[in-house]
Structures are given as structure tokens and as C-alpha cells.
UniProtKB/TrEMBL annotation:
Belongs to the TYW3 family. It is an enzyme of class 2 (transferase). The keyword Ion transport does not apply. GO terms for biological process: methylation; tRNA processing. This is tRNA wybutosine-synthesizing protein 3 homolog. Its EC number is 2.1.1.282. Residues 46-229 form the tRNA wybutosine-synthesizing protein domain. It catalyses: 4-demethyl-7-[(3S)-3-amino-3-carboxypropyl]wyosine(37) in tRNA(Phe) + S-adenosyl-L-methionine = 7-[(3S)-3-amino-3-carboxypropyl]wyosine(37) in tRNA(Phe) + S-adenosyl-L-homocysteine + H(+). SUPFAM superfamilies: SSo0622-like.
């Protein structure tokens, strides 16, 4: 009988603790839903100020392929975009102990390219190296970066709605970031990223023509998949 009573008491204690945890979680979520919300007046003022700023990206403007998407997002009172890219293929030289912003950019395209076009870029780069007295030593990287849009959100509820839309559209790498003063930003992005080192600048071609051809066919497929994902937002 004592054993039964102890078991019953333990079971009730667990039920109370579980109920308390659920209640605390409910209060925590509702607290953040209320607290992480900016007044409409304040948010629209921040939005107007930000969208008037000069675009300091390399291109200096929104990519044409996602201009309609960006404008659509910015037409809603609860959102505004802070940065974006429609998707691109880039090649750069990464020098040891240097940050990416100090890398030497060789190539950038927002459209699929063939291997012949890319080889011309590499040939031109190596010709420049041979004629240069101060030769840069580093690793040549090739990277495909899919669509990405950063969106500032007025409230946690607005961020949740946008994140759910992104995930349901196939952008499985999307997420919410919390910045200073609890500012919420949703990053819309997919899992199509591809990055790999091609060769060292001090060495001759290390990869076979067959592999490079396969690589650029794969990148072409990723561009197509990226276009399909982008169309879901339009």
C-alpha cells in the first residue's frame, strides 16, 4: 500500500511539474509576442530612413530578377528588406590570413555560364599573374550562392508568418535573427549553396576537364532550381 501511495504521489508530482513547465512556456511565448513588437509609427519611420540609404553593395542596386519580390515585401507595413541577392556564381582568390572582404574577386554572374567562359577568366588571371612582379599566393574558390533576402520584421508574429512562408516554399535554410534592441530579421535562403576550392595560384590545373564539365553542369542545375524557388515568391 505504501508503495502504491508513493507511486501515485510521484505521478501527481510529475503532472504538476509538467503542467507548470507548459504554463511557463505559454507565458514566455506570450511575453515575447507582446514585447518583441515595434509600434507601427516607429517601424514605418525606421523603414523610410533605411530605404532612403545608399546601396553599398557591389552592384549598387537590387537585382532585376528579384526586384518585384523586394518591392512586394516592402509594400507591406510589417516588413522591409535590408539586403538581397537573386543568386550568383562567384570566383575569388582567398589569400591566407585575409578576410573575405580583402579577397581578390575574379568573376561574378547572376546567370549560368559554361566552362569555356570560365576558363577564359582563369586564363586571363594567370596571364596577369605571370606579368606581375608582386605575385599573389592563395586559393581559387568557386561558389554558387542561391537567392537570399534579409527582411526586417515589425513583430515576432510577422516574422513567424514570413518564416513559415519561406519554409513551405522550399527555402529550408531560412531563419530568424534577433539583433540589437530586439530587432527581428528573417533571412530567406535555401540549401542550394555550393562552395569548393579549385586550385592554388602557385600550381597548374589540378582538376580534370571531365570533372570541371560535370561541376558546371551541376551549377547550371542549381541555377534552374534557384529560379524555380524564386518564382514561388512572385
Amino acid at each position: 500500500l505504501q508503495t502504491v501511495i508513493r507511486l501515485k504521489t510521484t505521478e501527481m508530482r510529475y503532472r504538476v511539474v509538467a503542467h507548470a513547465k507548459i504554463h511557463v512556456e505559454y507565458l514566455r511565448i506570450n511575453f515575447y509576442d507582446h514585447d518583441m513588437e515595434i509600434s507601427l509609427h516607429t517601424f514605418l519611420a525606421e523603414k523610410a530612413t533605411f530605404l532612403k540609404k545608399v546601396d553599398f553593395s557591389r552592384k549598387g542596386s537590387v537585382d532585376e530578377d528579384i526586384e518585384d519580390i523586394v518591392n512586394n515585401i516592402n509594400s507591406h507595413d510589417d516588413y522591409f528588406t535590408t539586403s538581397s541577392c537573386s543568386g550568383r556564381l562567384v570566383a575569388f582568390v582567398e589569400v591566407a590570413n585575409q578576410r573575405k572582404k580583402n579577397c581578390e574577386w575574379l568573376f561574378k554572374s547572376h546567370k549560368a555560364v559554361d566552362l569555356i567562359t570560365f576558363r577564359k577568366v582563369l586564363d586571363s588571371y594567370f596571364q596577369t599573374l605571370q606579368s606581375s612582379s608582386g605575385k599573389t599566393s592563395g586559393v581559387i574558390w568557386l561558389k554558387f550562392e542561391p537567392l537570399i533576402i534579409h527582411v526586417r520584421c515589425r513583430s515576432l508574429q510577422a516574422a513567424k508568418q514570413l518564416l513559415n512562408l519561406a519554409l513551405n516554399s522550399g527555402c529550408r535554410n531560412s531563419g530568424v535573427m534577433i539583433g540589437k534592441r530586439l530587432r527581428l530579421t528573417v533571412a530567406l535562403r535555401s540549401t542550394l549553396t555550393l562552395a569548393l576550392p579549385l586550385q592554388h595560384t602557385d600550381q597548374m590545373q589540378m582538376l580534370s576537364d571531365e570533372y570541371l564539365e560535370f561541376l558546371f553542369q551541376t551549377i547550371s542545375i542549381k541555377f534552374t532550381e534557384n529560379d524555380q524557388l524564386r518564382s514561388k515568391y512572385q
